[in-house]
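In this supplementary section we document a worked example of the pipeline. Step one takes a protein sequence of length 131 as its only input; no multiple sequence alignment statistics are reported here. Step two produces a three-dimensional model, which step three serialises into structure tokens for compact storage. The input and output of this example are shown verbatim.
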Amino acid sequence: MNNKLILSTFLLCTFSSVTFAQNYQDSLKGKYLILEGAECAGLKFNAQATTAAWQNEMECSRGYYNKDAWRITWLSPEIFVMTEVIRPNDISPPRNDIYKIMSIQNKIVTVTNYWTGWGNQKPEVQKFRIK
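The serialised model returned by step three reads:
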């Protein structure tokens, strides 16, 4: 009987966390996220939050539009992968960035950015403000 109680509690907790997971994709649709400490550098999501453009500080501060395009693949309600769309050359694979949204509060988006490049880099917590 004790095993049934433990199993029931485990299943309830598992389903509760899945049921109440925040759907961040809806929260980012059509949003412009500006990196903390920047004037205009950040991510511009499309209306479905399935693509984004990265805007560099130098280009946007001068009024130019940076054409750094990314495809967004949502792995879960809070984790997405950004994959580079424009090929820099014929031999390099596309760059990928993995983000886990920690929270969206008071127009501040807190994410963990997981390193996917060469070498060992620790995950970095980044903050963006929603414009």
